[in-house]
Amino acid sequence: MKRLFFLFLLVPVLGMGQTKNVLNVxxxxxxxxxxxxxxxxxxAHVQKYHKGDWAWRVFDIQTGPDANGYMIAEGPTxxxxxxxxxxxxxxxxxxxxxxxxxYTVDRGGAGYxxxxxxxxxxxxxxxxxxxxISHVFPKPGMIKGVIELQTKMKKVWQAxxxxxxxxxxxxxxxxxxxxxxxxxxxxxxxxxGYRKPMPERYNMAHGAGAWDMYLADFAKCVDxxxxxxxxxxxxxxTK
Length: 239
Fold this sequence. Notes:
By secondary structure, the protein is an alpha+beta fold. Helix content is 30%, strand content 26%.
C-alpha cells in the first residue's frame, strides 16, 4: 500500500484552543469494473452520515501515483471533536462496509492533517474545484529548514496572487508538508505565460541570486517531493 498523502497542515500547537483546523483525509480506490456502483453508494452514504463538522469533500485524483483514486477530506474540526467522536455507530459502519467498501480494492490509507495559517495565502475554507497538491518530505532533523523554505515561498505566492493552503501531516506516517494550490481560475493558471517563471518571481521577491540559494537549501532539507492534480466532485460530497 502506497504511503498515504493528504490534503492539508502545520500550525503552532500552543494557544490553538478549539480552532477548527484539523482534517481527516482518506484515500480509496474503486474496483475498475465497479466505479459507477461505488460512486452511487458513496454519494448516498455521504448524504446520510456526513454533515456539519463531519462533512466530506470528495476529489478525483487525476495524476500522480494515486491517479484514478478518490480523496475524501473530512472536516475541518477540532482535535477535541475527533477525540470525543467515539464509534460512528453500527448503522454507519454497516452502511460503509456492506454498501460502499465492497466496491473498493485493498489499497489506500487515512491520516490527519492540520492547516498552517502562518504559511498559507488563503483561508482554510476558501476552496476551489481544481487543486494541485505538492507533498514535501523533510530529511531527518530538517523540519525547521522546510518551514523556513515555505515561509520564503509564501512571499512569492502572495506576489503572484496564488491561493495556497499549507498543511502538516500529524501522526500519519513520515513527516510531511502539503502545499495545496487552489486554482481559482482553473487549469489555465498552469499555462506558460499566466505567471512569470518561478526563478524570476523568486528573485524579484528575495533579491538577485535568491533562487539558487533556495535550490541549495531545498536539496539540503528535503528528502523527496511529488505533486498531483485533483478535481472536486460536488456530486459525491456533502450537500
